[in-house]
Structures are given as structure tokens and as C-alpha cells.
From TrEMBL:
GO terms for cellular component: vacuolar membrane. GO terms for molecular function: L-amino acid transmembrane transporter activity. It is found in: Membrane. The chain crosses the membrane at residues 29-48, 54-75, 111-129, 135-153, 165-184, 204-223, 244-267. Residues 22-291 form the Amino acid transporter transmembrane domain. It comes from Carpinus fangiana. This is Amino acid transporter transmembrane domain-containing protein. It is a multi-pass membrane protein. InterPro entries: AA_transpt_TM. The keyword Transmembrane helix applies. Residues 1-23 are annotated as: Disordered. Keywords: Amino-acid transport, Membrane, Transmembrane, Transmembrane helix, Transport.
């Protein structure tokens, strides 16, 4: 009876594994990158400062491998359930938790998904609002005002159910991300060249207690886990999804290595929690904030 009640309120997430997607390989790659890459990347240099550059590199690598492996496991679970006659009873993540661990598993799955998605949404809203506030300071709007202005945009985007429809915006967001990171790295290199940099002043591993923080920040950098099934289902050729996901994660991980490492090397103990705050307040910094905000974070 309880399972029947759960079916009545389920939103199909797992039953579309056999449906034909419309997104090409390039479109899916763009959606993967914009789904995975999040604002956490701007905090990686600070994580490297707290934990040390070697610990930071290890944290990013472990987070990347773990995220990739778990995303593949999720796809494999859907494929296995789709091959079983009773798979119709499992349509949501909560249903899958219920099937594995009973009522406790179902409630726990729903709770964790709620906390994860709400936390990510709040972080995005605060981050974007802070950047907009710094760009348009003096216009009489508070940080809370920018957040309330952004909420309707986020709600509107959540009603778009087709990832292929978002692909052009995802590609543009990826271009903005790459350009913004390139500008930040440019500032890092200039800082290293002009500040009498010494590699001996940078710590490899600060303490074991700092490792969880570095790992948590690295995990935050690899977002989009909840989009796994939608990304895979949107593809025309689903059998290429694992290889495409591996290529995307490889490129993103290398980018995170360079971004976190060079950011810490440039500013050392002066590295701030958001690396853009270390940049001089000029049109370069404003360009980075603008490119990170409207598309990269909202999508």
C-alpha cells in the first residue's frame, strides 16, 4: 500500500532510459561541463592555502574520481532497473532508496537530495548577488535585493525540462567560464612574476585536520551529480555517455589543478576565500564577475 502511494506522487526520473534523446555529443558535452563546473572552483585556491598545495591536488583528484564513479553507478542502476519487470515501481531517487533500505532509505534519499539542491541554490544566489553588488555598488540596492531579484530567474530556469534546449546557453556559459578563468590565471601569473615569488614559501600539506576542508571544497567544485540521469537520457547515442563523461571530467580536473595551484602560488597566505577578491579592482575583475554571473551560475 505504501509503495502504491509513493507511485502516485512520483515524478518519472528512471523510466526514460529507453527513450530516444535529441542532444548530440557536442551538446551533451556542453551540458556536462556547465552542470559539473560550479562556483566552488573560485574557492579552490583558498582550499589549497588552508590544506597545502599537495593536499589540494589530492583532494581535487579524489573528488573527481569519486564523482565520476558514482555518476556511472547511478546510470548502471537505472539500466538494471529498466531490465527488470518491477522497475516500473522505481521512478525517483527516493523510490530507489526505498527499494534498497525500505522506508528509512526512501526518506533519507529525499532528505539528502533536498539539502544538496537547496544548499547549492542558496550558494549560487549569494555568490551571484555578491558579485552583482560589487559591480553595481552605489545604486541603492542591498545584497538581499539582488538575491530577491535573482530568485524569479532561477525559478523560471527550473521549469525548462529539455537539456537540448539549454545547450546553446550552456555552450555560451562554458565560453564565459573559460575566459573568466583565463583572466584569473593571467592575474595569478602577473602576481607571481612581480612579487618576488618563492616556491619554498608555499606549504605542501599544512595539517591532517585541514584535509576534510580541502576535500569538501573540491567536492563542491564538482557539481551536477543530480543531473546525471537527465544528461544521459538526453543523448541520442547513450552508449557513448561513459566515455564522454570521462573526457569531460579529465579536462575539468586538469583545469581545477591549474586554477587552484596557480591561485595559491600567486597569493600565498593572502589568498582570499573567493579568488576574484584578490584581483585589483579594474575592468578585468569586473569582466570576470560579469562572465561568471548571468550564465555560468544561473544555468
Amino acid at each position: 500500500m505504501e509503495q502504491q502511494q509513493r507511485k502516485a506522487v512520483s515524478v518519472p526520473l528512471l523510466e526514460s532510459s529507453s527513450s530516444t534523446g535529441t542532444a548530440s555529443t557536442a551538446q551533451t558535452l556542453g551540458n556536462i561541463i556547465v552542470s559539473v563546473v560550479g562556483t566552488g572552483v573560485l574557492g579552490l585556491p583558498f582550499a589549497f592555502r588552508v590544506a597545502g598545495w599537495l593536499a589540494g591536488l589530492l583532494g581535487v583528484f579524489i573528488a573527481a574520481v569519486s564523482s565520476y564513479y558514482c555518476m556511472l553507478l547511478l546510470v548502471q542502476c537505472r539500466q538494471k532497473l529498466a531490465s527488470e519487470e518491477e522497475s516500473v515501481e522505481v521512478k525517483t531517487y527516493a523510490d530507489l532508496g526505498y527499494k534498497c533500505l525500505g522506508r528509512t532509505g526512501g526518506y533519507l534519499s529525499e532528505f539528502l537530495i533536498l539539502i544538496s539542491q537547496c544548499g547549492g541554490s542558496v550558494a549560487y544566489l549569494v555568490f551571484v548577488a555578491q558579485n552583482l553588488s560589487s559591480i553595481f555598488e552605489g545604486h541603492g540596492l542591498t545584497l538581499a535585493s539582488y538575491i530577491f531579484l535573482l530568485v524569479p530567474i532561477e525559478i523560471g530556469l527550473s521549469w525548462i525540462g529539455s537539456l537540448s534546449a539549454l545547450a546553446p546557453f550552456s555552450i555560451f556559459a562554458n565560453i564565459c567560464n573559460v575566459l573568466a578563468m583565463a583572466i584569473v590565471v593571467k592575474g595569478d601569473v602577473q602576481q607571481v612574476v612581480g612579487s618576488g615569488f618563492s616556491f619554498r614559501d608555499r606549504t605542501a600539506i599544512t595539517s591532517l585536520g585541514a584535509l576534510p576542508f580541502a576535500g569538501g571544497m573540491a567536492v563542491y567544485g564538482f557539481e551536477g551529480f543530480g543531473m546525471t540521469l537527465a544528461l544521459e537520457a538526453s543523448m541520442k547515442d547513450k552508449c557513448t555517455f561513459p566515455k564522454l563523461l570521462a573526457k569531460a571530467f579529465t579536462g575539468i580536473t586538469i583545469l581545477y589543478f591549474l586554477f587552484g595551484f596557480f591561485g595559491y602560488m600567486a597569493y600565498g597566505e593572502q589568498t582570499k576565500d573567493i579568488i576574484t577578491l584578490n584581483l585589483p579592482h579594474n575592468w578585468w575583475t569586473i569582466a570576470v564577475q560579469v562572465m561568471c554571473d548571468p550564465f555560468s551560475c544561473s544555468l
